[in-house]
TrEMBL record, chain A:
This is DNA replication complex GINS protein PSF2. It comes from the Eukaryota. GO terms for cellular component: GINS complex. Belongs to the GINS2/PSF2 family. Component of the GINS complex. It holds the Pfam family Sld5. GO terms for biological process: chromosome segregation; DNA replication; double-strand break repair via break-induced replication. CDD domains: GINS_A_psf2, GINS_B_Psf2. Keywords: Chromosome partition, DNA replication, Nucleus. Residues 75-179 form the GINS subunit domain.
Automatic annotation (TrEMBL), chain B:
Keywords: DNA replication, Nucleus. The keyword Nucleus applies. This is DNA replication complex GINS protein PSF3. Residues 138-172 are annotated as: Disordered.
Length: 199, 191
């Protein structure tokens, strides 16, 4: 393949962040402007006290120029994250469901728009805890019976970002296991792309 | 683990020597034994690279016993503690223990084949958790500090064979990429 090796395994976290910036978010503009037509749609009008819906990348760009205040999504509040964390801890078997771009959006908002969030530092540590609990579960999952038999890993509710970290290792490991599986019949086709894909 | 025609790893794995004995006399190939004799005699033992031994054995010109890296002694050691067996030393060169074993299994009959593959698979599965922990640990570790080589993880790392080392590198790399993403402050481009 023509792609450099580090891009062959799938999307990188940076690329996922780029995709996440397509999500829309509410902002309170600090300037007045009529509607603007962008490739992805028409946004505005921007009239200061009322909120407008724009893509995240636009919100971040305006925020960096101090031209808006970002209204954090409702799932990014101390309460909601605390609930998720509690649910995650209580439920040892599976992952709790998070918005698809949860990690990416929360990270860029904490990076760029810290002052628009309530208690950013405790939010940050809650997110870190949440991540660690989920990572621990992934680790246990990797040593579970399903993986050991080379057949499957339970990844329901994992976000694409977490999967991107896990995938290269898992694909290669399962490729090796599949090739070591005792042959049933003389069908050479059973070796699917697994091993090749990881190379 | 691909057996692609162009896979260098496969070629290297096939190049290990296997001790075979001929089942018939062969004229003019005495130099394979390294001696001055002109012919190879029946039952004489010759070390042949696997790619040659494979064809000869499939045509029943030669037979070979299971080579020492897959003997019962190794099997017993793997059963006792899979993680402390140094697979890297068992097969020469880069130590493609799994690959070579799999190629040998291809030549064997049904029962010993399943037996050998089961041994390989079990060894891999039992070593996987340690491998995963180690790669995750190395991905998150601070590499500016000098590395201590006393922990059990390090001795396991010395014993990894070729494919395990590749897997380790892959796990470490993806862990590193994520870690650097989490640590970055998102100030690219900026204002």
């Amino acid at each position: 393949m023509a792609l450099p090796k580090h891009l062959q395994n799938g999307l990188t976290p940076d690329e996922l962040t780029f995709l996440a910036e397509e999500e829309t978010i509410d902002i309170v503009p600090l300037f007045s402007m009529t509607r603007v037509r962008l490739l992805s749609g028409i946004y505005g009008p921007f009239t200061p006290p009322s909120a407008a819906k724009v893509p995240l990348w636009l919100a971040l760009s305006l925020k960096r120029k101090r031209k808006c205040r970002i209204v954090p999504p409702e799932w990014l509040s101390i309460d909601r994250v605390q609930n998720s964390l509690k649910e995650e801890r209580e439920n040892a078997e599976s992952f709790c469901s998070l918005p698809r771009r949860f990690i990416e959006i929360s990270k860029v908002l904490l990076d760029v728009a810290q002052d628009d969030l309530m208690q950013p530092s405790s939010l940050r540590s809650l997110l870190k805890d949440l991540r660690e609990v989920r990572q621990a579960k992934i680790r246990i999952g990797l040593q579970s019976e399903g993986v050991m038999r080379g057949s499957y890993l339970q990844v329901t509710n994992l976000t694409p970002l977490e999967l991107s970290e896990l995938k290269p290792f898992l694909v290669k490991a399962m490729g090796i296991m599949q090739s070591l599986e005792p042959r049933k019949e003389e069908d050479e086709d059973e070796e699917e792309g697994g091993g090749n894909y990881a190379q | 683990m691909d057996d692609d025609y162009y896979s260098l790893n496969s070629i290297l794995a096939e190049n290990h020597k296997l001790s075979c004995s001929f089942t018939l006399d062969v004229e003019g190939l005495g130099y394979l034994e390294g001696g001055t004799e002109n012919n190879i005699h029946q039952h004489s033992k010759v070390e042949l690279p696997f790619w040659l031994a494979q064809t000869l054995s499939l045509n029943e010109f030669t037979t070979f016993p299971l080579p020492p890296p897959y003997s019962n002694r190794v099997k017993a050691a793997l059963n006792a503690s899979a993680q402390s067996v140094k697979l890297s030393n068992l097969v020469g060169g880069n130590g493609w223990w799994y690959r070579w074993g799999r190629r040998i299994a291809d030549v064997l009959d049904d029962e010993p084949q399943a037996d050998l593959l089961n041994t390989l698979l079990k060894a891999f599965v039992n070593r996987l958790p340690a491998l995963q922990d180690l790669s995750a640990h190395h991905a998150s570790a601070d590499h500016t500090l000098p590395e201590g080589s006393t922990s059990t993880g390090e001795t396991f790392r010395d014993g990894m064979e070729g494919d395990e080392r590749e897997l380790f590198a892959i796990g470490q790399e993806s862990g590193k990429v994520s870690k650097s993403w989490y640590d970055s402050s998102g100030r690219k481009g900026g204002r």
